[in-house]
Amino acid sequence: MSMRNNKETIKAWAMFDWSNSAYNLVITSTIFPAYYTIITTTEEFGDKVVFMGRTFTNTALSNYALSVAYLIMALLLPVLSSIADFRGNKKIFMKVFTYIGSISCAGLFFFKLETLELGIICFTLAAIGYIGGVMFNNSYLPEIATIDQQDRVSAKGFAYGYIGSVLLQIICFVFVLKPELFGITDASLPARLSFLLVGIWWIGFAQIPFRKLPAGSPNYDKITKSTVKNGFQELLKVWNQLKSMALLKRFLFAFFFYSMGVQTIMLVAAGFGEKVLKLGTSKLIAIILIIQLVAIIGALIMSFFAKRYGNIQVIIVVLTIWIGVCVAAYYIQNETQFYVIAAVVGLVMGGIQSISRSTYSKFLPENTPDTASFFSFYDVTEKIAIVIGLFSFAYIEEFTGSMRNSAISLAGFFICGLLILFSIFFIKSKKTDSLRSV
Fold first, then answer.
1. Whether the model pTM is above 0.85
2. What is the mean pLDDT of residues 206-218?
3. Which of 64, 149, 358, 383 allows an S-S link to 154, with CB 3.0 to 4.6 Å?
């Protein structure tokens, strides 16, 4: 029996976004960045911290840690996806990464300034768990939805993610703003309790997709050196196939460049607001909640316009808006301006992720059996882009002493992606019949 377009299966798949998006919101976007910036900024050393015997700018250190996580996964994913294809057990990998990520989030409960090394290690491992789980979850999309339904299903996943993460964020919000209601006197405890709750939420709700998603056809043959090597051979195979798929190849180049900007902005926004504007935890949480709520609408709107006008046209418009966001971030001076920029980011954030994922899925050949390998290529492309984006953002901040310079530099990545997409649009306009779906 085909699992495609099955309502229960699609809902279970979307619940994976519901479970792990709490990590994205609390750990990368709101409470952790604010908590981290506050406890690592001292009167004696300012924004400098010592990690493993070396001195770093505090926010640059966390961005370097994230870039290391993404680099590790960019190297591991080809091997793991090859093993998953060979063994037919990608759900097991989803589980392993989910447990790594959720337990690491729970471990952040013990993070204080005196345990900086532990905090950074747990922060890095949580990112690794999140990245791996998302990759294997993404690879299910062509299996559970037909090509005409993939935009809708992809958007549903992001919508579930935003709703689930906002619900947990509100619970954490109560701890952070009203600790006295719970008899909490330790100023660091509300934030650390939030990290613990993320771990529990993540691992708890992930049991739904673990039960419902197809397990595949496990192959219990022994893993050999050639199986591991095959992961990179599969990437090479995908790359060779791309040579005869000119538009998909161009789209991946565009995706590579604009992902440097999109993902970096999403990962550094809270730290930027805390460090540049001194907004404080409560205001950052309120702003990110606005972003999440607007993003739900944004993902659905993008899906509607993509269906009506085409994915490429919609992404072109969205990238133009992202360039404006980078320029605005450089000149931002007050809280009100940050609220406006946050609302704009929210509108285009979920949309570009959802449409990018479904555009790639639409370009894939029909009934592709090794979807994990194709999505491994997609994810490796994105992860390398994030490594470059985060590293350049952190380096420019340390070199120039200002996060504003880092922010405006991201506009260059968006411009490169935009130019490539324009070339796709012009080719696409000459081949309307064969490219109507994108």
1. no
2. 81
3. 358
CA atoms within 13 A on the CB side of 225: 0
Give the C-alpha separation, 221 to 176, whole Å.
50
Report the amino acid identity of residue 329.
A
DSSP helix/strand/coil, 5: coil
CA angle, 155 then 158 then 162, to 5°: 135
Number of domains, the chain? 1
Q: For 312, what's the count of Cα atoms within 13 Å in the CB-facing half-sphere?
A: 26
Report if residue 228 sits inside a domain.
no
Q: How far apart are CA 250 and CA 358, in angstroms?
A: 16
Distance CA 30, CA 21 (A): 12
Tokens 């196939």 correspond to 241
Task: Please report, for the domain that includes residue 114, its CATH number.
Answer: 1.20.1250.20
* Token output for 414: 């968006």
Give, as one character, the DSSP assignment of residue 47.
T
Which run of H or of E encompasses 295?
helix 281-309
**Does some domain include residue 227?**
no
Q: Is residue 220 part of a domain?
A: no
Domain hosting residue 350, numbered range: 7-214+234-430
Largest CA distance in the chain: 67
Which tokens belong to 6?
A: 């099955």
Give the model confidence (pLDDT) of 254-313 as tens digits: 999 999 999 888 888 878 888 888 877 777 777 777 777 787 788 788 888 888 888 888
| 75-85 confidence digits (pLDDT tens) | 887 777 767 76
Whether residue 418 is contained in a domain is answered as yes
**Interatomic CA distance for residues 382 and 376, integer angstroms:** 10
Closest CA to 255 of 117, 167, 401, 386: 386
Q: What angle do CA 265, 268, 273 make, to 5 degrees?
A: 105
